[in-house]
Structure formats: C-alpha cells, structure tokens
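Protocol step 4 of 6: record predicted structures for both targets in the notebook before any analysis. Target 1:
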Amino acid sequence: QAGARLKRARLNYEEAQTLGFFDAIESVFTAEFLRNPPYQGKPTEVPVFIIGMPRSGSTLVEQVLSNHPSTFGAGEIKEFSRQLNMLRGRFPGLPKYPQIVQKMNAPQFNMLAEGYLNKLVALAPNSPRITDKLLTNYYFVGLLHTLFPKAKFIHTRRNPVDTCWSAYTKLFKDDMPHSYDFGELGRYYQKYDHLMAHWEKVLPPGVMKTVVYEDVVDDLPKMARELIAFLGLPWDDACLSFHESSRPVKTASVVQVRQPVYSSSVGRWKRYGDGLKPLAEALNFHE
C-alpha cells in the first residue's frame, strides 16, 4: 500500500474522463451500428484478440493457443492503436475514438483494416491464426469486429477481487494509473465489466468466448479443447504442454506459464482478511 500510494502520487489520472470514455464507447457501438456497419470488413480469420483485465489468465490462454501448430502467439502488440493514430494523423479532421467511426468513410476503414492486418500477418506469414494479446483492445471490440467480422475474441475473466488485487501488487511498465488505489481500481473494473456485458449483448453469436481462469485451472484439457474448437482448428495434444514452450513471454506472468497449471492463485485475496475489504466494497463484490 505504501508503494502504491507513492506511485499514484506521481500519476496524473483523470478518473471522470476515463470512466466517461467507457460510456462513449457504448453509446457509439450500438446493436444497430453493428447490424448495419459502415464497412463490409475483411473476410479474414487470422486475427484472434485476447482481451480482459491484466492478471486474469490471459497469458496462460495465449500459451495454450500458441502451442497449436496453426497458431502464432504475437503477445501484447500495440499495432491497432498505432494504426488508428496514424489514420488521425493523415486525416486531422477526424475526431478521437470512439467518435471517429461516425466520421470515417469506407476508404478510411479499409486503410485502417489493411494497415493493421499487414503488420499482423508479417509476424507469421504462414500462420492461419495469430493472437494479439493487448488486453485493452476491449475498448475496440466493436470497431475490430466491423473491420474483421470473422475474427474471434477470447475474453479472459477471473474472480474480480483476485484480478484487481493481483494488479494492485504489480508495478506495470505501462502506466495503469487506476491500479494503485482500491477505490479507483474497483470503479474502473466495474466500468470494464459493464462494457464487456455490452459487447456480449451486441455482438453476433460465436464471435466472442469468455474463458474463466478458475475453470481453466479446474479442467485444463476441457477448456483447451473448447478454445481450439472455438477457433475452428483441429485438436492437437501439444496445447497441453504449454509450459514447455520456449516462446518469449514479456508479461508479469512469465514465471507462472513456465509451470504446469496450479490452483494456488485461486482465492488468493482471502489470505489478507479485512485488509482487502475496501477493494471488495469498491467492486461491490459479495461471495
């Protein structure tokens, strides 16, 4: 807590602006928008977006998938937001996201789609599936689905108090200014949770799959098979040997994913007793 207070004091975090950003996304990407998109999209199945909060089991999911011979794990790449910024740089009259999609024309949508896809495919030109594990792509699900209607989204979830407590204990390389105060962290999580419920409501069936960390720990073979089937790929036993993979991992889970699945992180927050009550209350969490 002392470390978190010191870190938070050095950050400029406008909470109202951040929470309002979530509201703006929902107001733009309505069910009607996704039913009648302004762009027909690229018919590719290559991109697989792994999204969710940090510390929710996403690295484990990507390790399982990347051990499949038809899947390349690209990790946390920031290419999509970079392409979006480049588009605004080229067309300065376009507003910021999410309002930008209300002003873009078909050639601009196409430019964004091709710019991202070309960079992604260049990472593994012969791979039928490539995972992009930049978790905050959950902001862009509606736009990504518009650009790539056949792409799949895998949403990783974990007990909210475990998720937030684990994030609170990490000093992230990229600023996550909401993660150093229990109240701010809880309110942010609730907005994220509401946005994910919105995506589940407005996306067509079969586009997004939610994977619960505790379920993966409880029965890895079952969940791994479900994931591979979701991507439309044949099963491969290599997916269960994810901890033997030599692919580089650059997230805070680098140590954990070199080991077989273990359950010691399930319910970890309970060890701290009343100390985490403020976090549970901020999350409105009740067992």
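Target 2:
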Amino acid sequence: PPAARTSWTGLAARVFSFPVMCMFLLAAVIFGNSARGIAEPDIWWHLRNARNLLQYHSFSRIDTYSFTAAGSPWLSFEWLSEIPFYLTFKFMGLQGIMAVYFVVLVLIYAGVYYRSCRAGADCKDATVATLLAIFLGIGTVGPRTQLFGWLCMVGLLVVLDHFQRTGQGLWLLPPLFALWVNLHGSWLFGIVVLAITIVSGLVEGEWGLVMARRWTAPERKKLLLVLATSVAALFVNPFGYKLVLYPFDVLFRQQSGLQYVVAWHSVNFSKLSGKLALIVIFASLATALFSRSRWRLDEVLLAGFALWAALSHVRFLDFAGLIIAPILAPHLKLFPPYQRELDKPWLNAGIMAAVVGSIIFFFPSSAQLQQKVDETYPRAALEFMQRQHLNGRTFNEYGWGGYMEWYAPGLKTFIDGRADIFTYNGVLDDHRKAVFIEKPFEVLDKYRINYALLEPNQALGYLLEHSPNWRLIYSDKVAVLFE
C-alpha cells in the first residue's frame, strides 16, 4: 500500500489501541466519582483569594476574612492553584470548577498508567493497578489545590524514570519545583522522592530479590546538581523563604490543626479508605512473596515512605497510590499478555467515543452541582441573616467558614479552613472546646458571640436551645441559627 496510507493506518492503530482505550475507561471511572466532590469546604476561600489577587494585583499577607484572626500575618501559600479554579468559575460557574479538577485527575492517573506500562506491566495489569490508585485517592476527588501538587509529583516521577532509562531529562526538574512551590506545599515530598532516588544509587548489590545499581560518576554529578538547583528554585516565589519554610511550620507549629482536622488523622481501618489501604498493603506483601521478579532498592524505599505517609495521615493515601501502583503493576501478572496483532482498533475507537460522549452527556448541569452545594452549606440561612441585617459576631461550623466568606463576604467568620492562623492564636482550640462541650459558654462569652450558625442535631445546638440566654431564630435541614 502507499506509504502515506500505511503511515495513517499505523497512527490510527496506535491511537485507537487497546492500551489507550483502557485509559479512557479509567477516565470514565474518575468521572463517575467527580460530581460528588464539588462541595469541598476550602474551595470557597481559595476562590476569594484568587479574586482578590486578580482584582487588586497584590497578595494577601494578613487575614481580612475573620474577626478572630483579623490582621494576623498570613501567607496565600497555594495562590497559583487557586487561579485556574477562579477563572473557570468566573466563566462557567460550578461546571468550570468540576472541569478543572476532573481534567487534573485524568492527567494524574494517566501518568500513573503510563508509568506502569513503561515499567513493563501489561496494559491490563497496569489498568488494575491504576484503578487501585484511583480508589485510594477517592477522598481527594474535588476542587483541591493538592491535586496540582500531585500532578507535579507525577511529572517528577516520569522525569526520573526517563533519566534512569536514558540518562537525560533532569533539566526539567528545577523549573518544575519553581512551579510546584507556588502551587502546593507537597513539593517537600518531591524533594524527599528525589533524595531517595539519589541515595538508592549510592550502593550496589543484591539482597534477595532487592537489587541496586550504583550511579556512574556523571549520573551522580547530574543528580546532585539538579537537587541543589531544585532547592534553589523553591525560592522563586512571591513570599521568599517564608513559603519554603511553610511545610515545616505545618509539621512542627500546627499540632492543634493536625489533631483537629480529620484529613490529618491516621488511617481508620474500619472505614473504606482504611480497607483500601489494607488491600494495598496485602497486595504488596503477596506480590513480594509470590513474584520472583526483582525489586529495585529505590522502589522498596519509595514504597515504604509512601505507606508510612499514607498510614500516618489519611490525606496522603492518594500519594501512596501514585507511588505504589507503578511499582506493583509489573509484578501482578493477572491476565494473559496483550497481543497487538489481535487488537481491534475500530472497536476500541467506538468504546472511546462512547466514553467521551457519555462524559459530555452526563456532565452535571450548574443547577445539579448547585443543589449538591446547597445540601451541604447554609445558603438559605445566610440569605436570612442578610435580609434581617444580622451582622454581629457569628460562631460557625469549621467547614462552613470558607463558604460564608465567599457567599456572604460582609459577615466576618469565627473560623475557616485556614487552620494555620487559627492555630497560632488559639482560636482552633477554643472552637474545639465549644463544639465538644468542654467550655462552650466560656468560649462564646470570651469572643462576645452574638449568633451561632450550626448544623442541626449537634451537641452545642442542643445546649443553646435549652439555654435561657439563647433562642432559635432560624432552622432548616442544613442549618440552625441561634441568637
């Protein structure tokens, strides 16, 4: 046949191949879990940050949202991640927000799937491993700035894989870290991953099924130079050394936040996320026992670090999936190997078109997404407060603060999801004492609270309802308001 026709036929066979179709099926799974995550509590104050930045062309350096931390120093430490969410919301509403995090999630797990295949896994085994990673990260589905950090992590891992195969590509890492530090504080994990990769190549040997290859002198020089320049690139940000030190501040100065915010708790094995973590652990152990394939030392160390991080803090379960899935995939051997000569490009193309068409057809409308938001946040209660001109000091639920600051900016909040500034001045501890009925009236009196906006059937609401100094002035299925 003519060369041009052969070229187009070969391209079509590659584009509409079974491995590519598997990634489309994974995208369908991601889409199926995306709509439920729209009611993320922190996205609202992120939107307000981005709006202020684009409107006034300056970064927030003090708190202006709450009355309990007003004027306190504060860093907008995820400022670059906030901008895509705000711009899409401005032009497309909630649909734009969902489109952003859906696309980022697809890119993240496409990277996981790609790395699994490049590591030697059959595409079907790579699909199973990536599916496990998706389920591990099910709790992070939503408009979270953390997703941009994990996208950078996947980029880092792809570059390191390419370097191990070809000895090239490391020059991409310093600009990646310069971008990463402005997107999310998870850049610290990236530095750890890079350091583990370097250290693993400082020795050579075999220990059972574990093996290590020593870096050559030029490779070691390149890696150390890139590590140094990547650390230097972290200081390319609007806040200088303060933004670089922020992840360490979280670990060592914000202990109240780590204890209070559920995402920082250790894994609860009675919950779905904990059961999925157990599956990953048992899969790793079973694969190590029954597979006679060799493991690289850097893979063992990275998997150990990822499991430690995930079991210590539930918010890092998705990170464990990103690291472990491509390591496990080549060892699974669950299916007969894919045979390219038996592929059916037209069938694959039909399935891929069906996936794309289904995503477009079933993409939630703005009204459907708004309904999910209204089922979670006190929109009607805030409208009542605005109609009645109730703008006194309001004690609010922790997860509602950001929504109040976005939807009703004239109302100053007691607390929101920026746990750092409320940890420094003790507000987070006081909020906990009120909510858990340790010193409820003392806290309300301390901050001269006029109103309490709470979820129904909460202990503090029951206490106020039966107090002679408080009265219920509004209630619905989502919120109750006491004066």
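Step 5 preliminary note on target 2. The beta strands are 205-207, 210-212, 295-296, 394-396, 451-454, 472-475, 480-482. The chain has a mean pLDDT of 92.
Proceed to step 6 after PI sign-off.
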